[in-house]
Amino acid sequence: MKSLLNAWSWLFLVLILGFFEIYAQTQTGNTFLFRIYNIQSISVAASQILLLALGLTLVIVAGHIDLSIAFTTGFAAVAMALVIRFVGPEAGWFTVILAMGVGLLAAIIVGLVNGWLVAQLNVPSFIGTLGTYGIARGAALIVAGGATVSIRSDEARVLGNGHILGIPIPVVAAVVLAIICHYVLTHTRFGVHTYALGASRASVERAGVDVKRHLVYLFVISAITAGVGGLIYTSRFSAGAANAGEPILLYAVAAVFIGGASLTGGQGTIIGTVIGAFIIAVIQFGLVFCGLPPYWQFVAVGLVIIVAVLVDQSKGRLVGGST
């Protein structure tokens, strides 16, 4: 029973893929799963969610939360767009690389503030990152003049809409970051300390780990992956918007918990988050494919979140019953 609960996200992904494939075959006579356009659309949607969810996974494994990622994404997107507009597209790749560096720096600043609030001032992460959520939102709107910052840059457009070996660059970026985060979480001492911190902070402190510094690193990593999402957004749409990540926040948090992370920390994997992101992306694309209005996506994802929490509670009861 416990192994079935641990694999429920994989089984659920197969189930919904099967459902939409049967629907497509019976209603349209075409395939849902084996069309290149569908695969690319689902992969791009999943990559958008993943870029916010990867760093968040590490934070949640450590027993905390980062609600600021939505507007960390927007802050980075606006910063990148402003630099390109100020320097001008004539410098080509130099402008884009400089703009990306400034955008990531803007995101890192938010991560450092989050880490300082949680680690040094002992502000609960939910409250602290909710505060920086508002600060990052306001800062992005202020520097953008309350409007979307449009740009013209062929190089940036290539980053957001180009392909490498037929794979969209946003998907490649998400895959690379997922591999890095997976390695850090499963094959390094940093990952071991992250899991241990979520299970018992006191034991980690007794082991001599600098917990405060570790927390700062975690929130910076979360900000960096969210910031990359902002850079991809600006590159894809040739514009920087303060609310670039706001519609994805719910999906990013959901992907982490659907993937097996625990509300209390100490559990969660990058592979699980990837599966969670694909579940949400398939639901998004599949419901539109079925002709349902887009707002049904929120209902469906909300139901899946509730199921994920119930599964987490069931695993906890099984563990408690076996001890």
Give the gist of this structure.
With 323 residues, this protein is mainly alpha-helical.
Care to describe what's here?
With 323 residues, the chain is mainly α. The chain has one domain (51-312). The protein is 76% helix and 2% strand. A two-stranded antiparallel ribbon has the order 1-4. It has a two-stranded antiparallel sheet with strand order 2-3. A hairpin with a 2-residue loop joins strand 2 and strand 3. Helix 7 (154-161) packs across helix 11. The longest helix is centred in the first third of the chain and has 28 residues, at 93-120. 45% of the residues are buried.
Keywords:
two-stranded antiparallel sheet; 14 helices; 323 residues; mainly alpha; 76% helix
Helical percentage:
over 70%
Domain module count: 1
- The low-pLDDT segments are none
Mean pLDDT: 90
- CA radius of gyration is 20 Å
Strand content: under 5%
Kindly report the spatial arrangement of strands forming the biggest sheet: 1-4
Number of helical runs?
14
State the end-to-end distance: 16 Å
Choose one word for the global shape.
globular
Largest sheet: 2 strands, antiparallel
Number of strands: 4
Structural class: mainly alpha
